[in-house]
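Subject: for your reference before the review

Hello V.,

The reviewers asked for a structural picture of the protein, and I figured it would be easier to keep everything in one thread rather than splitting it across files. Below is the amino acid sequence we used in the manuscript, unchanged from the supplementary table.
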Amino acid sequence: MPDSYIIEVNSETAGIVVRGQGGYRFFASSHQFNRLEGQLFRNAREAERAARKLVNGDVKEAA
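And here is what came back from the structure prediction:
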């Protein structure tokens, strides 16, 4: 299993997640995704879902 993944939303790079102790940590590549910066996710798919929710305006669910 890879140690990092690029997260894209609507053909825009949201950031990367890097596997570490306890899960995958999100690093934003755009100010639009700063709310997710440093958050820990169980897997890359969970981080992608959170980024999509953030873009769609579902801020409560993304956090």
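For the response letter, the relevant points are probably these. The first helix runs from residue 44 to 55. The first strand starts at residue 4 and ends at 9.

Happy to draft the paragraph if you're swamped.

O.
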